[in-house]
Design a protein that fits this description.
Length: 196
């Protein structure tokens, strides 16, 4: 990042350079690497939502039909965002296979060996393992390798189309365009720097 750009950020957002550096270092050290490990995160969280809806229908909705609960208690059940199922991605160096999915009572673990595959191959493998999850929890069909491969193709192809056709609308030509857009959406009206 160039000094003139840092100066513009500090001036427009009414911060000092130390504050900018703190956020930049936090993002670079704590978030960026973890983002890289959350392969297909939108797909994973969407599949979690689909399966959670199935679990809620099975486990929460019967509670709402029970007359022992008041209408207010039933409204609380409906308002809560229960997570009854989750998918965890776990890189395991030295894993004896490229990858595998293990199902537990209320979640699945996708383990993969990052040392034997490229980044794009890891995405394919995870999409394949997600196919197994879809077969088991959503479609209730034969959980075969070819069905998991079909889901892998559909998911990766869908991502490709998204990146080619829609992702451009989410990017900016440069850093100054980002600053301008932030100033338009969330203008800073006064200096509000927190002191140490």
């Amino acid at each position: 990042m160039t000094q003139p750009l840092i100066d513009k950020l500090c001036e427009d957002f009414k911060i000092d350079e130390e504050t900018f550096t703190m956020f930049e270092q936090f993002y670079n050290s704590k978030i960026e690497d973890k983002l890289k490990m959350r392969y297909l995160s939108h797909l994973v969280s969407t599949i979690e939502d689909v399966i959670n809806d199935i679990f809620k229908e099975k486990h929460i909705m019967p509670l709402l039909k029970n007359p022992q609960y008041t209408d207010e208690q039933k409204r609380v059940f409906i308002r809560r965002n229960y997570r009854l199922y989750s998918i965890v991605l776990r890189p395991i160096k030295g894993f004896h296979k490229k990858g595998a999915v293990v199902h537990h009572n209320y979640g699945s673990l996708i383990a993969y060996n990052p040392d034997v595959m490229s980044e794009s191959q890891i995405r394919i493998l995870i999409a394949h393992e997600l196919g197994h999850i879809i077969n088991l929890y959503v479609l209730h069909c034969d959980n075969t390798q070819n069905r998991a491969n079909v889901f892998s193709f559909v998911a990766i192809n869908g991502k490709n189309h998204f990146y080619k056709n829609h992702a451009k609308s989410f990017t900016y030509p440069d850093e100054r365009a980002i600053i301008e857009e932030i100033n338009t959406v969330c203008p800073i009206t006064k200096y509000k720097q927190v002191s140490k």
